[in-house]
Amino acid sequence: MQTFAKLMKPKHTTTLFSLIHTTALSPPQLATTPLPPSPISSTLYDDLIQEAGKSHDFRRLHDLLTRRINDGCLNTNDTFRFVTNSQSTVEMLNPLFDCLVSLPEGVPRANACNALVRRLCKVGLLNNALQVLDEMCDRRLEHTAWSFRPVLETFVRQGELQKAVAFLKTMKEFGVALDTGSFNCVLREYCYLGDVNHAVELLEMMVREEGLKGDAWTYDAMVLGACKAGKVDAAMAVMRSAIDDDVKLLNLTYEHVIRALMEDGYFEHTLKFVMVCAGRDKSFNGEMFNFLATGLIKYERFDKAKMVVEEMSKRGLVMHKKIQEFHEMDSKE
């Protein structure tokens, strides 16, 4: 992939975005055209920007992209929906990017550039997204790790995890301050696939090389990976480590362990695990008990499901519809 190869080079040898001219649009006066008499909203601005983009009215586009930020309406995933996977879009990128470059510094320009990168990735124009990022770095436009996230997510979605890791390293070479979220994006996929070795390598890069700390999503990925590898004991050890680090685990993290234990047939151990973990707020307990009861019913462990439902009733926990129906049916017998 030629553009990706260019992006992977050291910063000073990177080729400039070939579609972008060296001259940019001169910033137009604000409020060049009136807005329709509708309540100001992100949806309104997205619709107006769609019209301006389709008609290639870049002066109007500049005006709207600036004014929406002043009105507190950040760009959304629909802001650049006029950008499609077509030759006309590729030909339009030159004046479009010039328009974004000429936006006021700070949030207006950064938010618009980030939205464009995300849109290009969404419609399958990854090379063009990489070119835009390349140019943002070269021109020293505002960018953070979040600007690069859509590319990472695209590599992960395509199963190109080695490219995703290489891209993380390239981001660092470009002077981008990596964040935990960027690592989590790739780490979770390794763990989902049960590739513990690569997950550990990536985790070491995050902690030792970048000095970053794991968050709830990091620990969730690690627990998922351990469960996928059939190492439930290791998953529980990770959870204890998270609790020791004062990280509030996600409900989803507990579900990984509950699911893994039941899949292995350890229903008694699952009950004990949930009872030990119970005791926090009712919303947490409710979700965990509902998940457990649903699993027990699925595996036709009705006696144990009855015990869980009775415990939920004692604790005053809200039951999901299917669990409530099971409880009512059991009460009639």
Task: Please render the helix and strand layout as text.
Blueprint: H1 2-7, H2 42-54, H3 58-70, H4 87-101, H5 107-122, H6 126-138, H7 145-157, H8 161-173, H9 180-192, H10 196-209, H11 216-228, H12 232-244, H13 251-263, H14 267-277, H15 282-298, H16 302-315, H17 321-332
Helix pairs in contact: 2-3, 3-4, 3-5, 5-6, 5-7, 6-7, 7-8, 7-9, 8-9, 9-10, 9-11, 11-12, 11-13, 12-13, 13-14, 13-15, 14-15, 15-16
Architecture overview:
By secondary structure, the protein is mostly helical. It folds into 3 domains: 1-143, no CATH class; 158-262; 265-333, no CATH class. The protein is built from 17 helices and no strands. The chain has helices spanning 2-7, 42-54, 58-70, 87-101, 107-122, 126-138, 145-157, 161-173, 180-192, 196-209, 216-228, 232-244, 251-263, 267-277, 282-298, 302-315, 321-332. The radius of gyration is 25 Å and the shape is globular.
**Mean of pLDDT:** 87
Number of helices: 17
* E-strand count: 0
SSE string, helices as H and strands as E = HHHHHHHHHHHHHHHHH
Strand content: under 5%
**Tell me about the biggest sheet?**
none
